[in-house]
Design brief:
Blueprint (H helix, E strand, L loop, with lengths): L5 E4 L5 H12 L3 E6 L3 H13 L3 E6 L5 H9 L7 E4 L14 H29 L2 E6 L2 H5 L5 H21 L4 E8 L13 H7 L8 H11 L11 E4 L5
Parallel strand pairs: 1-2, 1-4, 2-3, 4-5, 5-6, 6-7
Length: 240
């Protein structure tokens, strides 16, 4: 097990992000729970983590705003050594009917957000000679999905960025990996996938749990995963 580190989880107030925050806190890390608009939910999560003996606090900024992102990250005390780029949005429509704003919004959060958060944290992380960067992708990037050309493109770009950045940082003690969840049971997905649909799509015959994604993230953030980099880990019940 690695010594406690400072961890930042973007989109930490959502179901998957919250599960990752809790799991990293259980591993002993100090967790920054990031949110853009759901500050009350993020603060409640951080309070609950502290009540259970963990260490957590909130940080609020818009990942698509380079200036405010840089300002808030610069104010954090000490380097971030575990970064989970989890922030992302859906704005679904088939491409013939997709509005330009839908395309740009999804790309902006997942791709530009990745750059805005990750880039300013790299040199401080490099100086520590230890780091874990984990990007939350999607099975949509691997298989495609009707109505999600924008989302699949954004997460596909994130997968490619993962592999390239892993090569850049490989000699610096920093690993870079991505997790591609499949159908995960969250409030956002509730009702979107009928049980029969899940049975047909998922070889394991059920939706995943946010905690199962979080367990994968915690492993990739650990010392035990020090020889794993540039990988896209599917957590999808066999879909891909």
């Amino acid at each position: 097990m690695s010594a406690p580190k400072r961890a930042l989880v973007t989109g930490g107030s959502g179901a998957i992000g919250a599960a990752i925050c809790r799991r990293l806190a259980r591993a002993g890390h100090h967790v920054y729970v990031h949110t853009h608009q759901a500050l009350n939910a993020a603060e409640a999560l951080a309070e609950d983590i502290r009540a259970r003996g963990g260490s957590a606090e909130t940080v609020q900024f818009d990942v698509t705003d380079p200036a405010s992102t840089h300002e808030r990250l610069a104010a954090l005390p000490g380097p971030i050594q575990i970064l989970v780029n989890n922030a992302g949005v859906h704005d679904d429509a088939v491409l013939p009917g997709m509005r330009r704003e839908q395309w740009h919004r999804v790309i902006d959060v997942s791709v530009n957000g990745f750059f805005n958060v990750t880039q300013p944290l790299l040199l401080p992380m490099i100086r520590t000679r230890w780091g874990r960067i984990i990007n939350i992708s999607s099975v949509a990037a691997l298989l495609g999905n009707r109505g999600q050309v924008n989302y699949a493109a954004a997460k596909g770009a994130l997968n490619s960025a993962t592999k390239a950045l892993a090569l850049e940082l490989a000699t610096r003690g920093i690993t870079v990996n991505a997790i591609a969840p499949g159908i995960i049971a969250t409030p956002m997905s509730e009702g979107a996938f009928p049980e029969a649909h899940i049975q047909r799509l998922v070889p394991l015959g059920r939706a995943g749990r946010p905690e199962e994604v979080a367990d994968a993230a915690a492993f990739l953030a650990s010392a035990e995963a020090s020889y794993i980099t540039a990988q896209i880990l599917s957590v999808d019940g066999g879909m891909s």
